[in-house]
Amino acid sequence: MDIGKLKRLGSGALPVALLSILLLSSLLLMSAATQNSEQFGRLYMLLLLVNLLGLIALLVLIFSNLLRLRRQYRNRATGSRLTVRLMLMFVLLALAPVSLVYYFSLGFIQRGIDSWFDVRVERTLDDALELSRASLEARSRELMKRTEQMNAKLQLSDDVGLPQVLDELRVSDGASELTLFMGGGHVVASSSINPADIVPDLPNESVIRQVRQSGSAYVTLDPLSERGLYVRVVTQVPAATPLLETRFLQALYPISDRVSVLANSVESAYTQYQQLLLLRGPLKNSFILMLSLVLLLGVLMAVWLAFFSARRLVTPIRVLAIGTRAVAAGDYTKRLPMHSGDELGFLVESFNDMTLKIAHAQEDVRNSQHQAEQERAYLWAVLARLSSGVLTLDVNRTVYTVNVAAEHILGVESKACIGYELDEIVERYEYLKNFANAITPHLAELSSEAKGKGDWREEVIFYGATGRQVLMCGGASLPGDEDGYVIVFDDVTNLVQVQRDAAWGEMARRLAHEIKNPLTPIQLSAERLRHKYLKTMAPEDAVVLDKSTHTIVQQVEVMKEMVQAFSEYARTPKLELRPRALNHLIDEVLDLYRNNRFGMTVVTDLQDDLPLVSLDSGRMRQLLHNLIKNALEAMADGEMKIELTTRAFSERGVSMVELQVSDSGPGIPVTILENIFEPYVTAKPKGSGLGLAIVKKIVEEHSGVIWAENSEHGACMTIRFPVAQGSLDDVVPLAVEEAGQDKVTPFKQRDGEKA
Amino acid sequence: MYLSAKVNQHGVIGQLLRQVVPGIAAVLLSLFSNIALAEVRFDISEVKVNLVDKVYYLNARVDYELSDKVLEVMHRGVPIVVALDIEFQRSRRFIWNDEIAQLVQRYQLEYHALTQQYLVTNLNSGLQYSFPTLEVALALLGTVVDLPVLDEQLLEGKGRYIGFMRASVDVGELPTPLRLRAYFSADWHLSSEWYSWTLAN
Question: What local confidence, expressed as pLDDT, does residue A434 receive?
């Protein structure tokens, strides 16, 4: 049998109840056996063994239960403490009365059995037996004499008439049987009161020997069970002649029924008393054994019942404790099994109700949390796809959220911002200082004003990672318990630029159109005037006319040129961007200026292995021409030295190519430095003011940036282009490419004029 | 360490069995050894087996020497039962012997207080004899005359047959309260050794 089964047996009520009933019945049988019952007497030892084994089984059960309880107690299992307490209480309750009863029962057994025995009773019985003996002996002696008389009569008769004589003697003497026999046991003659007794009851050899040796009669009382008491007298019949063998006569006399019954009664009473005397000790012992077994059984059953009921009682409490622990640990799904309909059952039911309600509440909380999370995710998705930058700050100006557009516009990473104060972020990204400075007063204003009011909008300009940026910022304080601000901004740099460019372009186009139309008639009219009246006029007047018409024609020409420049600016030809080597273009353009026609020195510092840049070669040439021309015009008065530098570098993960053009001129006046790239902003007496505007337009068409600054000895234009995504294989050789293209040579006329 | 590991493996029951079972075994062994150490006070001699009319008759002499305790109990009126265990086996060469016949002859010896006679009853036949002295009674008890023990038909052909015989006091017939003590007392475990003889066939 495996241990699991045994354990189940140990905990089940039925097997133990069966075992108890078995033990109890075997004890009852044992008790019957002790009362000298023949039937169970033979089973006594078996019953004892069964009992002992049963008790051992119970003991084993209890012991295993005890060990289990001890283990649970040590492991601090739920309910074990209460079980122990209840069990101890039950055991004490059971043991106390049982022990008391046992103690007194022991006394009663001792005294009860002792009280059976009395010296007087014993003596009386002895006397009664003695009296019976005396009475019977008297009768025996009398019968012996009578037999001896018969013996004398027999000696006179011969063998032939013996049976008849014996019959007569037996009847006259009142004997039940008369037998004449030889010493060897050979029957000579016999007479019996019962004719069925063919075989006479002869005495045994020792009696015959005794009679033969003593010569006197032998008399005895024989207690044969089938005949009852009778007197046996054996006498020797002297032989008639010495030659003949000695004969013996045996007479059996019945004792009268009355006497026999009395004698038997006395005898049995005496014997029983003697037996009782003998059995006094063992009887006591076996009663005590019985009692002890009963007690042991009772106690063990009580102990087991204590275990059983303690466990039964504790089960719902244990279940409750386990349930409470589960709830404390956050498991609200726990449902306790119902055990009973009593108060404990009610408790369990209430507990189940409670946990159900808590579970529902928990579920609601989880649902709303889930909903909030979903809304948050939704908002976040919307925020992420907004083209406007959104920034939220808490009351301490610590950044709380930064959306993707904000990262892009401000050129920051959200990781480097979220959780940091605005000042810390400015420390990290210095170019944001303007931005921070612009919004700080508004934040202060917002925090001082009532919530929900004081929305603000402002245009903020700062020089960011991609150059000058114009942001349209708006802000408001956030609703909620905690103060906070939301700042929304759009990068309107391009928008402003495009609007401005479009306005200028439109103006230039109209201007060109409006001005160009009257120019030709003016020029023709001037030439006609000159042609018609120059010859006819007086020489002094002719000089004036010649000079005036010449001036008109020349100025008209200049105006035409200007109009041409305007229309150039307004024109936006289609760009053909291809990865090209910037250095090649620069070399090519510079070749035009290297012949010292202009009296200037060209210094180049071009980085080898410069990455490719997506360029439109025509526009790029125009850009270079404009820059160089601009420098030339600026340096008109002093030393003429122009320096071109190219280099590649990487900033914030973006690879760029930089071109710097610096001259040795007087530099750009600080007053116009800010707007130097605007149309009609120029420091030069001559010049359309469109050269740098066109340069900037081209740079922007190439996704580049340009700014102007003053170095130690002149102005410096810096242009940056992003590096093209491609390899050298994509490079189209310039010669091949330009075979079919117009060579753009801006300011051709002016070049020619200067030359 | 080994023991504790074992205990963990087999649990409480295993531990209990290992501790309790040897204890019980020891007690039982001591009891049985007590029984086994029965006093040899009876002696069997002059065993003769005669074949008459295809029935074997046993003649033997048994000397009974009863202990004082037994005599005391008997004189107090408690009948003492003496049993003669007789057994016949066919001897086999390599395996255990084959039992072919077995009988138990029981006699009851009691003291009749009134008449001061010793009564011997053959419990198998019911015949009863009375004797004035214990010696005579024991002498008769010890004289086995022409006791039919075996039918010749039971002997299956030729072979070596062995008879066994033993005389002993039958404790099981004592009054219940006395019996428990008698089981564990050497005074009551009176018996002869197994007497064996070869049966001529």
Answer: 80
Tell me whether residue A689 is exposed, middle or buried, using C-beta atoms within 10 angstroms of its C-beta: 0 to 12, 13 to 18, 19 or more. Answer: middle
Domain A386-491 belongs in CATH node 3.30.450.20: yes
Structure tokens at A211: 């009679």
Q: Which residue's entry shows tokens 């589960």?
A: A326
Q: Contact A343/A313 with Cβ under 8 angstroms?
A: no
The residue count of chain A comes to 755
CB of A294 closer than 8 Å to CB of A55? no
Q: Which helix (H) or strand (E) holds A147?
A: helix A119-156
DSSP letter assigned to residue A338: P
pLDDT in tens, A714-724: 888 999 888 87
Partners of residue B133 in chain A, C-beta under 8 Å? 206
C-alpha distances out from residue A79 to A76, A313, A327, A328, B177, Å: 8, 10, 17, 17, 48
- Strand pairing class (A641-651; A601-606): parallel
Distance CA A305, CA A61 (A): 12
- Which pLDDT score is estimated for A453? 59
Q: With contacts defined as CB-CB under 8 Å, which chain A residues touch B125?
A: none
Q: What is the distance in angstroms between the Cα of A150 and the nearest Cα belonging to chain B?
A: 25
Please state, in angstroms and rounded to a whole number, the distance separating the CA atoms of residues B180 and A398.
Answer: 99
**Going along A569-704, which residue ranges are E strands?**
578-580, 601-606, 613-615, 641-651, 654-663
Distance (Å, whole) CA A104 – CA A527:
163
Pairwise CB contact (< 8 Å): A3 & B14: yes
Burial of A34 (0-12, 13-18, 19+ CB in 10 A): buried
What are the tokens at A205? 């050899």
Cα gap A87→A300, rounded to integer Å:
13
A34 vs B contacts (CB less than 8 Å):
176-177
pLDDT in tens, B164-191: 999 988 887 887 778 777 877 778 888 8
A247-254 and A389-394 as β-strands: parallel, antiparallel, unpaired? Answer: unpaired
> Tens digits of per-residue pLDDT, B116-144?
889 899 888 888 888 888 988 898 888 88
Closest residue on chain A to B21 (Cα): A56
CA distance A575 to A659: 20
Tell me the whole-structure pTM to 2 decimals. 0.51
Q: Is B113 on the interface with A (CB under 8 A)?
A: yes
Phi, psi at residue A659, to the nearest 5°?
A: -125, 125
pLDDT greater than 50 at residue A49: yes
In chain B, % helix, strand, coil (3-state, to 5) comes to: 30, 40, 25
Distance between CA atoms of residues A551 and A533, nearest Å? 16
Q: Are B170 and B82 in contact (CB under 8 A)?
A: yes
Domain A575-754, CATH homologous superfamily name and number: Histidine kinase-like ATPase, C-terminal domain (3.30.565.10)
CATH superfamily for A132-255 is PAS domain (3.30.450.20)
Tell me, rounded to whole angstroms, the distance of Cα B65 from its chain centroid.
Answer: 14
Grouping H, G, I as helix, E, B as strand and the rest as coil, residue B120 is strand
Nearest in space to B109 (alpha carbons), one of B145, B144, B133, B85: B133
Residue A298 sits at φ, ψ, to 5 deg, of: -60, -50
Largest CA distance in chain A: 242
Residue A482 has a pLDDT of 67
What is the nearest CA distance from A285 to chain B, expressed in angstroms? 8
Average pLDDT over residues A75-104: 86
How does DSSP classify residue A574? P
Chain B residues touching A275 at Cβ < 8 A: 76-78, 175
B101 in contact with A, Cβ within 8 Å: no
Q: Which whole number is the average pLDDT over A370-391? A: 89
- 3-class DSSP state of A743: coil
Q: At residue B11, does pLDDT exceed 70?
A: no
Please give the biggest Cα pair distance in chain B: 75
